[in-house]
Request: fold
Amino acid sequence: MAEDFSIDVQFYTLSEELRPYFTALYLFDISCRDGVRVQDCLHPEWAAMRFSENTPPIGAVGPGPLKMQWPFVVSGPTSQPINFQLVTSRIWGLGLQPAGWAKFVDGHARDFADRTVDGASDPAFAVFAPILDLVRGANAPSDEIAERINAYLMRHIDRPARHELQVMKCHDALRDPKCRTVVELGEQLGISARSLERLCGRYFGFPPKLLLRR
Reply:
């Protein structure tokens, strides 16, 4: 099987100002023999965007049938694996932290949880849509394309974001092994159970109890 395909993954460092909002910028290069599809899955993660220079993947969140995805595909926050298949392709990935959702996405994360959408046609992701043009037909070294993506994101770094600091505080608490219950999470943030439920649904995609288990 190893002779049927080759894979190269490169990660790029974003500007320090962008790091609270994005998990990673990476390039996934796969070359397959004709007729070969490579199959894999991604564990549950925060929202992510993928920009295909050529053939998009087929995929699905959870056990459903795999469907052709879009050149700019967004996966919302997931509580199930993302199953996918690829042929020869070159795909840029950009992971989105909850604080990045608060700053850059005009929509509720719970509305996109455990599903994929066409980022080019959904207005919630309009700020990211031009990145597809940066990678398609760029005819430039990958390092240069990564620099262009970074520069584009930096032009939007001053976008206002409601609840940004509260979202970051909540994210830190979710990663704290000492914070084990919804009550403790609300106490760390100093907000009511109802406000916590709204905050988590709006920016994290799931109720606080599920997030603590996840």
User: Anything to note?
Assistant: The mean pLDDT is 94. The longest strand covers residues 22-32. The helical segments are 98-104, 131-135, 142-154, 164-174, 182-189, 193-203, 208-213.
